[in-house]
Design a protein that fits this description.
Blueprint (H helix, E strand, L loop, with lengths): L1 H12 L1 H12 L3 H7 L1 H21 L1 H4 L8 H22 L4 H4 L2 H4 L20 H17 L2 H29 L1 H9 L13
Length: about 200
């Protein structure tokens, strides 16, 4: 079980900071990336993200030096939480193409392409993907029981909150009144909250 916990911690701690940083770099600089075009933008961004992930991997021993052992109560709690994240991710993938997932519409020359998702799980919350990421992160932290992952949860939550703010600004620019209406109807993260959050 110790080996499984370590592997889960490692495969979480290596890519998650890079993925969050990717969107924190893309959204506020979307005009720059559009001028550069998707090919050059992705080359630069992926190189940076892979470099960061490799750096985290090289520092894995000190990063994962504090762990609290196998706690079967936490493991039992992690399983249904992970199931919820997986269920939500499957719902999201019914509507989110790979191009949309990778941000290709945001980086196209004029910020065109793609469409506003308003059906399925997107009819209940505006940002289900970030909800799924956070739920998944909580489950992996509980399962692995490493301090670094517990620290990563609030850091990731703050990063995702900022990403959402930047992304919504970009969506308003791209979809205008259509997005404004959607934003008024659908809450940000929690279904059934009535009026839009944030």
């Amino acid at each position: 079980m110790d080996a499984a916990r370590y592997v889960v911690a490692l495969i979480t701690i290596v890519p998650v900071p890079s993925a969050i940083l990717f969107w924190l770099i893309v959204h506020p600089n979307v005009r720059l990336w559009r001028r550069l075009g998707p090919s050059l933008s992705y080359t630069l961004l992926v190189t940076l993200m892979v470099g960061l992930a490799f750096g985290v991997y090289l520092l894995r021993e000190p990063i994962l030096s504090v762990e609290y052992g196998t706690n079967y109560l936490l493991v039992a709690l992690a399983v249904p939480i992970y199931g919820a994240a997986a269920w939500l991710s499957l719902r999201i993938r019914r509507h989110l193409t790979f191009r949309m997932f990778a941000g290709v519409p945001e980086l196209s020359a004029r910020g065109e392409g793609g469409r506003l998702l308003t059906e399925g799980v997107y009819a209940r919350v505006r940002h289900p993907r970030y909800v799924a990421v956070l739920i998944g992160l909580i489950s992996t932290a509980l399962f692995s029981n490493y301090l670094a992952l517990y620290i990563l949860i609030p850091v990731a939550a703050a990063g995702l909150w900022l990403i959402v703010r930047l992304e919504e600004r970009e969506l308003m620019e791209r979809f205008g009144e259509e997005y404004e209406g959607y934003r008024e109807r659908v809450p940000m993260f929690v279904p059934g909250r009535g009026s839009a959050q944030g």
